[in-house]
Design brief:
38-stranded mixed beta sheet; Pectate Lyase C-like; about 40% strand; binds 2-acetamido-2-deoxy-beta-D-glucopyranose; eleven-stranded mixed beta sheet; about 775 residues; 51 strands; signal; polygalacturonase activity; Pectin_lyase_fold/virulence; mainly beta; Pectin_lyas_fold; globular; about 5% helix
Length: about 775
Amino acid sequence: MLTEQSLAMSRRFGLALLSASVCLLFAPFVSALGSSCSAPLTTGQAQPGDPYWLQNIKHQGTSAFNPNSTYQVFRNVKDFGAKGDGLNDDTAAINAAMSEGYRCGYGCQSSTLTPAIVYFPPGQYLVSSAINTYYYTQMIGDARTPPTLLASSNFTGFAVIDADPYVPGGGGAQWFVNQDNFYRSVRNLIIDLRRVNATAPVIGIHWQVSQATSLINVVVEMSQANGTQHLGICSHISPKLIVAGKNGISVGNQQFTVRNITVNNAVVGINAAWTWGMGLVLTHACYVLTSWIGWTYQRVSINNCSIGFSLTTGGTTAATQTVGSEAIIDVTVMNTPVFVQTTTASNGTLAGSIVLNNVQLHNVPVAVGVKGGEVVLKGSSSSMYIDSWAQGNVYAGNDGVPQFTQGNIKPPQKPWNIIDSQNNIFGRGHPQYPDYSVDQIASVKSYGAVGDGRTDDTAALQRIFDMFAGCKLIFFDAGTYYITDTLYIPAGSQITGEAWSVILGGGAKFQDQKNPKVMVEAGAPYTIGILEITDIIFSTLGPAPGAILVEWNVKQPWDQQGGAGMWDTYFRYVRVLAAGCLMGLHLTQGSSAYLEGTWLWTADHDLDDPQGRQTSIFTGRGILSESFGPVWMIGTAEHAALYQYNFHAAQNHWIGFAQTETPYYQPIPPAPQPYSINSAYYDPVFNSSNPMAWAMYVVQSWDLTLFGKVIHSLRLTINYTQGCLANYTCQNGILNIDDQSTIMLYSVSTVGTTYQLTIQEQGIINEKYNRDGFQETFTAWSRSPY
Ligand SMILES: *[C@@H]1O[C@H](CO)[C@@H](O)[C@H](O)[C@H]1NC(C)=O
Ligand SMILES: *[C@@H]1O[C@H](CO)[C@@H](O)[C@H](O)[C@H]1NC(C)=O
Ligand SMILES: *[C@@H]1O[C@H](CO)[C@@H](O)[C@H](O)[C@H]1NC(C)=O
Ligand SMILES: *[C@@H]1O[C@H](CO)[C@@H](O)[C@H](O)[C@H]1NC(C)=O
Ligand SMILES: *[C@@H]1O[C@H](CO)[C@@H](O)[C@H](O)[C@H]1NC(C)=O
Ligand SMILES: *[C@@H]1O[C@H](CO)[C@@H](O)[C@H](O)[C@H]1NC(C)=O
Ligand SMILES: *[C@@H]1O[C@H](CO)[C@@H](O)[C@H](O)[C@H]1NC(C)=O
Ligand SMILES: *[C@@H]1O[C@H](CO)[C@@H](O)[C@H](O)[C@H]1NC(C)=O
Ligand SMILES: *[C@@H]1O[C@H](CO)[C@@H](O)[C@H](O)[C@H]1NC(C)=O
Ligand SMILES: *[C@@H]1O[C@H](CO)[C@@H](O)[C@H](O)[C@H]1NC(C)=O
């Protein structure tokens, strides 16, 4: 008898044979077959007035390795006594929902054992002090009718949502180490500060967090009173910045992408590290204060402010670090006297690298100016368009001599399939399926998957995909799903997790690096269809040196830009003592992918060790892309042995922001050890005088644009010491392109690397011209002259 699983296997096998037998370039695409369900998922079936499906589905999520078998993942604040009536003080109830079950809060650095969703049905939740959020928490409001957190007039807290509370009397100590404050999300909430006296410096969200975090569909309403001290979102490096930041989105800390924000009218603060995929509206906000290493802003709207971006510049040493680089794309600014203001004039050595692209100004007299000083780029009291403009060191071809530029530069390549109808880089926020009804959701635990981290769930999950792909939203109840063979996800699938459900590969089939095995196959090769994955973690149990975590084959339908992608979905290689896996993500030739908040992390410390000790885990490769596109990457890859990104014959990629780190243990052993070179994966060249992982390696690739990147080489030779950082010798080269590829680079910062760019492994851009604080930055590079 043919089981559903074997049917799926033969279907996949058939397609693989087909694509192998024709010329790869002309391989026919096949539309998704999907499953043979009778009610295909077309549109949402929720009725007006229905709550968001997440509220009423059966709640059976668990934390597989938590010793408390009754540990509750999903917490509806109303079950903890919150009223949501705008009258009763709900602070204690919400904090009880947050903390119950010995979760990871003050005194616990990190833990994967206590994930939670704190859920808010529609309503107005009056709060009089901060909601202190614990590690590994998603705060989610009803996606159909977003609830409000209403700060009471007697509000006394530091922030309404505090992701890293200060310890009372702790002299500035906080609950978490901010660069290790992972796994958090806030969704569908309105935070209303307007009842609080405008003279009080109250903050909507204190977001001092790091990788694997997101703010989605969040609105902060603030006082419009003259002189208001309210701040929207703030993640400051020092408490001082808050005071200073009274008039803006105050942004501190490092490496940050903001996509899709609107700032209207007066006074606010935003600040965060590592926030991805934001859909944020801040009413009454003004300037954007930024600092530290590198930032990419994509799709920003600024209205009625006094200054758009206010950049503190001028520091050129690590001790005097100020704004390193700023890349701003797809912006509309209205009725604002100054779009970008720096505190010091840049003369080539004092950095403050700026790249502007696709900027519409309406009644903005100064486009770029120095505070109290010269106008660097004039604006207009009517309308003006800036195609592509930069301040900083610009390079072309093999010429290693910097050209300090304050003027127009070559615009980035934006292939037609990367942009939207308004000529902006296409963007698509994390899908939340607000219109689906409860009976359009298929929970995997209701159909035989166990998710306890031990039971082999391969067959059960495969059966669920074969039954429901394309017919239901497949909901992975919180848990850890152990699989011992390839799990095939057909095109047409929509998959979501609960507080980051884990798909964990392990066992004999993933052990041989000479015979690699895909753990999760996303679509058969050369299939077309949608495929959406949200809130999932892909991981391995024990060493799996033969595992490719995800092979991504599916291509978006012609009429659904961004139809195949992953959001807030992470790859985690942890809890292993030897080799992690062969490769994280492989984007194959026929695929397209929209990746927003896709963090491939080889653990450099143990999240479940109370001391957070460093670990040496050997992951082979980060992301290999051979895709013809379109591919959007707004994500990051860290600590793989051979490379973090490898583009081979790839086309039409937009890499909106990328941050990478070389494995801390290298060069002992030297790259590529403990892996060997495999030509099937177009592995890079390693040279005994530079035995280090490549951050990015580009061969025979066309129409790639890298817009904002920070690359760290934290070479830790003996016992994790970083002596080489100070003399820029941690590695010789880190970003390499061949002599053919058409890639354009903007706002690239490196740390600890002698050559910031090598071409055919030969050093081109030397860091010595580009030091601007903790990092070195070059503003732009293109193959042909500007
Ligand atoms: C176990 O979890 C339940 C539900 O989250 C909680 O009420 C209880 O206090 C926990 N008990 C222990 C011992 O952790
Ligand atoms: C603050 O206001 C709330 C709601 O109006 C009230 O319940 C609470 O008792 C007040 N707290 C203090 C300390 O006055
Ligand atoms: C707001 O606070 C200021 C300073 O404490 C005070 O002078 C003012 O009266 C307060 N406004 C209201 C409406 O309470
Ligand atoms: C706002 O306050 C400032 C300083 O107190 C004052 O100069 C300005 O006129 C005020 N603006 C309005 C619109 O009241
Ligand atoms: C931008 O954010 C707004 C408000 O949340 C949302 O309606 C819109 O769909 C978002 N656009 C994109 C392209 O993400
Ligand atoms: C900006 O100010 C003008 C004039 O006060 C007002 O008409 C407009 O609505 C404001 N824009 C926004 C987005 O608030
Ligand atoms: C830029 O300004 C700094 C500080 O004023 C000065 O030391 C440096 O020589 C200047 N560089 C150039 C290229 O003019
Ligand atoms: C090896 O690396 C060194 C330093 O990066 C470079 O000078 C040399 O040219 C490289 N050799 C080859 C064959 O690429
Ligand atoms: C590295 O650290 C270990 C443990 O602290 C110590 O025994 C060893 O001597 C150190 N090695 C070097 C080369 O410093
Ligand atoms: C750079 O620093 C390392 C570690 O302190 C040292 O071993 C090396 O000799 C230094 N190299 C240069 C060129 O100064």
